[in-house]
C-alpha cells in the first residue's frame, strides 16, 4: 500500500514478460487525499501502446462503478472490455467496495477516490482523460468534473441521480433502508459485500444538478433508460437543463439501470463518444 501523496501508487506485482505492447495490465493500490487505499487496474486497450510515463494522446476512460459494485464484478469487467476497443481503461473499486479500504459514503467522499484514479492516469502518461460513471458513480463523475482542478476532458453519467435523498421509487426506498439503518448496513456488508459508513453527511455535498453548470466547457453526456427503476426521467432531464447547452442526452428505449442494463451496442457507442470527446479536448 502506498503511504505517499494522494494518487501515488504501489504496483501489486511485476508485469509478466509474456505481455505484449498491446496488453500491459497493471494492478495498483492508490492513496486518496484523505488516506484511503483504493484498488485499481489499468488496461492500455487494443490500440498501439505507449509505455507508462510517456506522454500520450491515446485517451483513457476511467470507469466509476455503481453502489455495491467493484472492479472485479462481471458487469464492470464487461464495460471495461467494451471501452478498451477505443481507449485505455482504468477501473477501480470505490471505498468500502471490493479490496479498497474505508467505508462507502454513497457519493460524498468517493470524489476523492475518482480523483486518485485520474491522477494515476496522468502518472501513466495520458493527457486525454474521460470519466464514465454508473448510478452512484454517475453522481461522482459529475461532481468531480465540476472541481476547478478536475483535469478531465469528457464526462458521461449513466443512470445517475440529479439530486440527493430521492425516495420516490421502491428501489430507492430500499436503498435508503440499507444505507441508513443498522440492520440495512449489516445486509450491505454480508450480502452485498459493501461496507457503509454509519455517519450522515456533514456537510451535505453539492448535488449533481448543482454541479452540472460548473462542468462547461468539458462535454457532458447524460444517458438514461426509459425503464429505469431507481431514478425517473426528471433526473437526467434536470441535469441536461442545468448544464446550459453543454450536455448531450441519450434516452435509451427499454433500458433499465446502470451497468447491468448497458448492452454491448450501447457500451460501444459510449466508448466511441468518450474517446472522441477526450481527443477533442476542452
In short:
The protein is 31% helix and 17% strand. The protein is of the alpha/beta class and 282 residues long.
Outline the structure in words.
- The protein has 282 residues and is of the alpha/beta class.
- The chain is 31% helix and 17% strand.
- It contains nine helices and nine strands.
- Helix 4 packs across helix 5.
- The radius of gyration is 18 Å and the shape is globular.
Topology readout:
Layout: E1 9-11, E2 26-31, E3 37-43, E4 60-64, H1 74-83, E5 88-92, H2 110-123, E6 129-134, H3 136-145, E7 154-158, H4 170-180, H5 182-190, H6 208-211, E8 220-225, H7 234-242, E9 247-252, H8 258-261, H9 264-280
Number of helices: 9
Mean pLDDT figure: 88
Largest sheet: 9 strands, mixed
Terminal Cα span: 34 Å
Radius of gyration: 18 Å
Q: What is the number of E strands? A: 9
Structural features:
single chain, 282 residues, alpha/beta, 9-stranded mixed beta sheet, 9 strands, 31% helix, disordered N terminus
Amino acid at each position: 500500500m502506498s503511504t505517499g501523496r494522494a494518487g501515488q501508487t504501489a504496483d501489486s506485482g511485476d508485469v509478466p514478460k509474456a505481455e505484449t505492447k498491446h496488453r500491459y495490465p497493471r494492478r495498483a493500490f492508490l492513496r486518496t487525499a484523505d488516506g484511503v487505499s483504493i484498488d485499481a487496474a489499468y488496461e492500455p486497450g487494443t490500440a498501439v501502446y505507449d509505455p507508462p510515463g510517456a506522454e500520450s494522446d491515446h485517451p483513457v476512460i476511467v470507469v466509476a462503478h455503481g453502489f455495491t459494485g467493484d472492479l472485479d464484478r462481471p458487469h464492470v469487467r464487461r464495460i471495461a472490455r467494451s471501452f478498451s476497443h477505443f481507449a485505455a481503461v482504468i477501473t477501480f473499486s470505490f471505498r468500502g467496495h471490493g479490496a479498497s479500504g474505508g467505508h462507502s459514503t454513497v457519493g460524498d467522499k468517493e470524489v476523492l477516490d475518482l480523483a486518485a484514479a485520474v491522477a494515476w492516469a496522468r502518472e501513466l502518461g495520458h493527457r486525454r482523460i474521460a470519466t464514465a460513471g454508473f448510478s452512484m458513480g454517475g453522481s461522482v463523475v459529475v461532481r468531480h468534473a465540476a472541481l476547478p482542478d478536475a483535469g478531465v476532458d469528457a464526462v458521461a453519467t449513466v443512470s445517475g441521480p440529479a439530486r440527493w435523498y430521492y425516495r420516490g421509487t421502491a428501489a430507492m426506498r430500499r436503498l435508503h433502508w440499507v444505507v441508513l439503518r443498522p440492520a440495512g448496513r449489516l445486509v450491505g456488508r454480508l450480502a452485498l459485500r459493501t461496507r457503509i459508513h454509519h455517519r450522515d453527511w456533514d456537510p451535505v455535498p453539492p448535488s449533481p444538478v448543482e454541479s452540472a453548470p460548473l462542468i462547461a466547457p468539458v462535454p457532458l453526456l447524460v444517458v438514461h433508460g426509459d425503464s429505469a427503476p431507481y431514478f425517473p426521467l426528471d433526473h437526467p432531464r434536470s441535469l441536461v437543463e442545468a448544464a446550459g447547452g453543454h450536455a448531450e442526452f441519450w434516452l435509451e428505449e427499454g433500458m433499465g439501470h446502470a451497468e447491468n442494463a448497458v448492452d454491448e451496442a450501447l457500451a460501444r457507442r459510449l466508448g466511441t463518444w468518450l474517446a472522441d470527446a477526450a481527443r477533442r479536448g476542452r
